[in-house]
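Re: Re: ligand-bound prediction request (bumping)

Still looking for help on this. To restate: I need the protein modeled with zinc ion bound, output as structure tokens. Inputs repeated here so nobody has to scroll up.
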Amino acid sequence: MVFRVGCHVSISGSVDLAFDRAKKLNCNTFQIFTKNPRGWSARQLNDNEVYSFRDQLNHKILFPVVSHISYLPNLASQSKEIYEKSINSFLLELERSLTLHIPYFIIHGGSYKGSAKEQGFETYVNSILKGVEITKGKVVILIENSSGSKNSITGVFPDIMRILNEVNDKKVVQVCFDTCHAFSAGYDLQNKKGVINTLEEMESLIGIENVAIIHANDSTGDLGSHRDNHEHIGLGKIGETGFKELVNHPLLSKKPWILETPVNEIRGDSDNIKYLKMLRNKELWD
Ligand SMILES: [Zn+2]
Ligand SMILES: [Zn+2]
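Reply:
Sorry for the wait, this slipped through. Here it is.
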């Protein structure tokens, strides 16, 4: 079985350039933003980059290709002004993913700050339903688990299960499991026992068939610290033992793994990809 592993790749200049960048980093799957992640605005995609992107996607050498929502949207926001901007950006980015034929679009949980959790859930679920109206399942929306900071609505599996149940169509809305976020939210992933307990809980509440993508990130923050600080694989608090258990666990071994690890003098993306592959047991390879 091919081990699908890649990282987040830049679309600077033209979205289709992401494929060559991903290949150079030894990815066979990758993630992009479809627009500048730091602002609300987006430049228009031009036909040439769209056709080139779709064409390369069709070759299925690098797949799946995943898009991730930009940084600013908060789909559970209780501020009218922020919510308007957030829903517009979410729908725009979904449409761009649809145009590019990208099969998965990852969103964060959002924060209901200034209001009750119930209202946060309602706003969030309604946001997703608006997205589903546009995608009709052609782009699967993936809810990413968060590090469970105050007012976050996707920090624990029961909350994610509740959202999936309320959206009520798991083929069009599924989950992206981020290892750093899970660990900082309080799910122990440092050893075999912790990994087994966490994955069994995920399997029983969400169902492994509803987990489409793994975000592989180690964590600088401690277990339950609610700090979202990514670290190179094996060099953070989850550590090498934890990742060895994760990457070889039968519930996760067939999933695509995408890194969002730092790039600095210690390691770059291709180093972390190599490292994750090194932790994989030989019998899981072709
Ligand atoms: Zn994310
Ligand atoms: Zn992530």
